[in-house]
Amino acid sequence: MVLMRDMNRPVIQALDEFKKRQPISFHVPGHKNGLLSTLPEEIRSALSYDVTELSGLDDLHEPAGMLQDAEQRLSDLYQSDRSFFLVNGSTVGNLAMMFAVCSPGDTVIVQRNAHKSIFHAIELTGARPVFITPDWDEETQTIGTVHALQIKKAIEAAPDAKAVVLTYPTYYGVAGNEMGAVIEQCHERRIPVLVDEAHGAHLIVGRSFPPSALSLGADLVVHSAHKTLPAMTMASFLHVRSSLINPQKVAHYLNMLQSSSPSYLLMASLDDARSYAESYSAEDYDMFWQERSAFIQSLRTLSFVEVIEPDDSLKLLMRVEGFTGFALLEKLEAEGIFVELADPFQVLLILPLLKKGAHFPFEESLGKIKTAVTLLKAEAVPDATTPSAIIAGEEIGMLAVSPADLTGMKTEWISIDSAIGRVAAGSIIPYPPGIPLLLGGEQINERHVEWLTQYMRMNAKFQGAIQTEQRKILVTIE
After folding, report:
1. Which of 171, 178, 448, 456 has its CA 20 to 30 A from that of 431?
2. Per-residue pLDDT tens for 20-55?
3. Can the peptide bond before residue 230 be classed as cis, meaning omega within 30 degrees of 0?
4. How far is Cα 375 from Cα 400, in angstroms, rounded to an integer?
């Protein structure tokens, strides 16, 4: 018997029907429907759905059945020309949309606080980036969003730009109110707008959430369904709605960049996440808002705790005066509370997009947070320095050395303190959030050194061309 809810989830329906046939596997994957797996039972039980492109289960790279149906439902929900399931995360979406608009040597305008996958896409395509550094957002103590005037200046500096690449909302939930004007300015010059909206798959449910960039006119938008919708890690969407970009060109690059053996578990998860957002009701939202408001109100009764609400209502920032976010994170994790990330100012919480009838342990969490903050104040030493705003480059800037030229250059490890004026040989990325403090090919200035030093002193985790214990970074040899 097919449940009514599964009729709205074609991938899940097809997998359920296939499983009921009790199929005997003489095909990949090698775990044979979980029979040979020695994984814990909780994981192994899912492997009967971990199948391959068998009769009736369609093909992600040439969808003609249930996957075509599922992607069409996704497109209908987000009102796109075409939408795609991504099984290699938003990273593959960022790569595909960049390849769809750029050739080697082309200029692209890109928001400086983009995710590392955007900069990897620029390097792989051979494009030349022109950076926009957004203003510092005082409320969240983070780099914010791009303004229309900045876009105007950037286009004047790079009138031949093939695309503008933006991040919206930011990792910290900052959306601003100029995205529509920014897109309109770009379209007046027939420049397509590509948006990494990884943290905005839930914006479609509306109400207090910022509008999606797709609804504001962006040409290509990537969503990490796994970040704010109930999808598995690596499960993402890519949407096309454009008179400037052919969806078939995007599909062409996705066929090359995505795995030729896509996970049916991930695709089922995407189908479920789309259905979750599509069926999100006014009653669901009211319940979410009530739970969220009560949690925030209770947090604000805790001594020493400051709570900041960004534009995106799924994000919360929590601070304890005199202590870094890294120190707070350590105490929270000791009590079993795991947040999204820490930075010199605060920790970031991503709230659950609850539906009516769901339960999340907010009350239990409050007790643990109170214990963590109490222990932090009693046991930890307050930080004597106040972190400064991270404005790592000029408002409109370029790399000193292009990624293509950087590859063949000789390099050396030098002390961070003697690196001012040198060119970084590789990017240095606090992770999370995966936003580079320093880009490969960027000329190092005093602000880079100041922030790298602060992050190291606070025991931040890095990816890239840095040796934290030796206080060294990799630079080019002139």
Report:
1. 178
2. 999 999 999 999 999 999 999 999 999 999 999 999
3. no
4. 47
Residue spans of the domains in the chain: they are 66-278, 282-379, 399-476
CATH topology classification for 282-379: Aspartate Aminotransferase, domain 1 (3.90.1150)
Instruction: Indicate the SS3 state at residue 49.
Output: helix
Q: List, for residues 340-382, the tens digit of each pLDDT value.
A: 999 999 999 999 999 999 999 999 999 999 999 999 999 888 8
Place of tokens 């609400």: 309
Q: Which residues pair with 336 in a beta bridge?
A: none
- Any idea what the Cα angle at residue 15 is, between residues 8 and 259, rounded to 5°? 100
Assess contact for 456 and 386: CB atoms under 8 A. Answer: no
Q: Which residue has the tokens 């002390």?
A: 415
Written as one letter, the residue type at 72 is Q
Say which residue the tokens 């709570």 belong to. Answer: 307
Taking domain 66-278, whether its CATH number is 3.40.640.10 is answered by yes
Q: What is the pLDDT of residue 6?
A: 57
Q: Where are the alpha helices (DSSP H) in 258-402?
A: 264-278, 282-299, 325-334, 362-379
Q: How far apart are CA 56 and CA 222, in angstroms?
A: 28
Compute how many other C-beta atoms are within 10 angstroms of the C-beta atom of residue 394.
12
3-state secondary structure of 196: strand
Q: What is the mean pLDDT of each run of 10 residues along the chain (478 residues)?
A: 64 96 96 97 96 96 97 98 98 98 96 95 96 93 94 96 98 97 98 98 93 98 98 98 98 98 98 98 96 98 96 98 94 98 96 96 98 94 70 79 91 96 95 91 92 88 94 94
Question: Which pLDDT score, from 0 to 100, does residue 146 have?
Answer: 95
Q: Do the Cβ atoms of 95 and 120 come closer than 8 Å? A: yes
Overall pTM surpassing 0.90 (yes/no): yes
Three-state DSSP state, 409: coil
Q: Which two tokens stand for residue 91?
A: 């990273």
Q: What is the 3-state secondary structure (H, E, C) of 348-386?
A: EEECCCCCCCCCCCHHHHHHHHHHHHHHHHHHCCCCCCC
> Which CATH fold would you assign to the domain 399-476?
Ornithine Decarboxylase; Chain A, domain 4 (3.90.100)
State the chain's maximal CA–CA distance in angstroms.
Answer: 70
